[in-house]
Amino acid sequence: MFINEFKDWLLEDGRSKETLRSYEATLKDLISWYEETVGDEFDPREISSKDLQDYRSFLETVRKQKPTTVNKKVAALKTYWTFLVETDRVQTDPTRKVKMKSISTLHVAPRWLTRREQARLIDVMEMEKKDETPSHKWKRLRDLAMAQMMLQAGLRIAEVAALNLDDLDMKHPRDKTVIVRQGKGGKFRPIPMNKDLANALNSWLEVRGESKDGDEAVFLSERKTRITDRGIRKALDKYFRMADIDNASPHCLRHTFAKNVLDLGGEKQLTYVKFLLGHENINTTQRYLTPSEKELRRATESISSER
């Protein structure tokens, strides 16, 4: 199956650890499905286009996964067979006949938070209880700074986890900057900090304390080691529940950042968002122009004769 070799090949190609985990999970899922369905041991040399089309159909009809999710898994498998062909482990690529699902942009608008939802979320995170313990305050200030890093600077969860102290340039009163050195695809990008982010970071850094083994991570777990992607999700998920915000996740904060910048208007806003988010293709950024379901509903309700 060459999973470890595939991961090494991806690393050499500059893929992120998050991509490695995602691709490995997809490959293992395919192997499990194949062996349970066909009854044979998985061998990439024996896999046909029909097998992969059946797997895709299984994801769509049985698991009822969204087209975007299915496409990500198909893309992972295409990359896997590209690796096999390039390293002479197989002679043919069965994924060539497996097409990506065509998706209308109306169905892929990212989930972002409304202004009211943003205010509720930050209010919950900033709320200091009368009997708040030092450890609770430590976590709350950390969580607020992590959330603001995504909401005010548009970082991905993995980028927040990867930040080191020397990635924060906070020497200048007005020109504070966060530097993303390990962006998607290994891309580097500096992002100006606004006052909301700078204030949240200052409050966190005052209580951060020393890390275990001198780790330079900006954000620490309770064990004083670098917090993981999963740790960030787990830490922030509870605040969405506390703020009574449905169908949202920490990644929505990055989407919200993009939406907030675009809503400022102006011809150059889309270009600004492209650079700030680290997108290589402007088409990726344009999906933030796609109206949400609430916005479409508001548009149709606005022309109704009944109010």
UniProtKB/TrEMBL annotation:
One of its GO terms (cellular component) is cytoplasm. Residues 108-301 form the Tyr recombinase domain. Residues 1-85 form the Core-binding (CB) domain. GO terms for biological process: cell division; chromosome segregation; DNA integration; DNA recombination. InterPro entries: CB, DNA_brk_join_enz, Integrase-like_cat_sf, Integrase_catalytic, Integrase_recombinase_N, Integrase_SAM-like_N, Tyrosine_recombinase_XerCD. One of its GO terms (molecular function) is DNA binding. It is found in: Cytoplasm. The keyword RNA-binding does not apply. Keywords: Cell cycle, Cell division, Chromosome partition, Cytoplasm, DNA integration, DNA recombination, DNA-binding. This is Tyrosine-type recombinase/integrase. It comes from Thermoactinomyces daqus.
